[in-house]
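The following record pairs a protein chain with its ligand, adenosine monophosphate.
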Amino acid sequence: MSKETNSSALVHSTPRPSREGQGGESAFFNPEVETLSRAEIEALQLERLQQTVRHCMNNEFYRKKFAEMGITPDDIKSLADVRKLPFTTKQDLRDTYPFGMSCVPLRDCVRLHSSSGTTGNPTVILHTQKDLDEWANQVARNLWMVGLRPDDVFQNSSGYGMFTGGLGFQYGAERLGMLTVPAAAGNSLRQIKFIKDFGTTAIHAIPSYVTRLYEVMQQEGVDPRRDTKLKVLAIGAEPHSEEQRKRIEQMMGVKAYNSFGMSEMCGPGVGFECPEQNGLHFWEDYYIVEIVDPETLEPVPDGEIGELVLTTLCREAMPLLRYRTRDLTRVLGRTCPCGRNHIRLDRMRGRSDDMIVLRGVNIFPIQIEKILMQFPEVGTNYLITLVTEDNNDQMIVEVELNEATDDYGKLKGLEQELRHRLGDEILLKPIVRIVAKGTLPVSEGKAVRVVDKRKVFE
Ligand code: AMP
Ligand code: ZN
């Protein structure tokens, strides 16, 4: 069966990584695209937006949306016309589960991924071979930008499988030409052995795992400065503060670059810091970036915090128009001393929904509530607290007991059972504490279910 895409309507002329950029000296993986002027970026975006919107007409969901809004692809005449297009959301992906957002026949798709987290229907993201190729180019571009070259050894210590941090970095690091070690997450002693034996120079991991790795290094008497060849860390997939990054850099003795990604956009590679570490460059040849007020959905001025909305420009299998990421950030600038004019966004400041991102896993409080409420012994008042303990981000779930009891043995058993059941649901085992009725705060108005005390937001 041919896997060649037959969507001839979509003639994206994405420049291939230019060889002259890969000669070892150039600061750019793809100089042609990375150094475009603002006017050139916008011209390219308009051309690709028009192609993308036409391509969306292959899909019933979009055809219906366009009809409802009375628009056709011919209405997109300028970049500002992106605002005529419908927003899309995670809910749309769930409602059309599994393949309803696809714009190509399934036979043209070669892979699917899914967002981390487990609420209801997962969100499924389909890829053609060209989508995967572009994704690898994006990741390679980022890794090149922070100084990695084919001589480097890249250890990918993030989860593999449906989580995009695994295969996303794997193919990107290989595309750059590095020896790439699919170490996956966990088993720190083995990770440290690989780092030493393979001469690992770069690691990708979620920030909370890097601090864990460092702890084990300390226990084992391994000094990353003295005993390893590490020079770069890529950290991302979960929120972290400037302080946390600095602490990681001090511990490991190397630069740590913030990496932003989300499955819906492909995965890692969407935004990445350059050596200036002055915000994340979001790649505007691949995405149109909007920052909107999450209530009014109107654009906010540069510098003001709003919700990040992304439109894909190079996707064949599943283009997404004005996708509401729910991540809150702001525009920092559109130029950079590094020579790239791709927009710079601040590190993520939180979310406009109640999704928790803990150790790279997406969790909704309602998932926790659902499990708690299956146990008649506990009441309806509960509190989720996120803390950083011994450099580890943890979730503590406190729930009130329904009735007074002095059978403490039974309580311990119940805490353990809740911990396991919650672990199955949210993929992380929280600390569970059952507390006496009437002890947890009762909010006036909307219940405050989540208190984030992680050292994430200054
Ligand atoms: P997933 O689709 O499972 O990869 O989860 C994507 C979500 O993870 C994003 O929408 C963000 O909320 C969060 N995320 C990913 N990278 C970062 C980052 N560098 N900083 C803060 N949050 C991030
Ligand atoms: Zn830069």
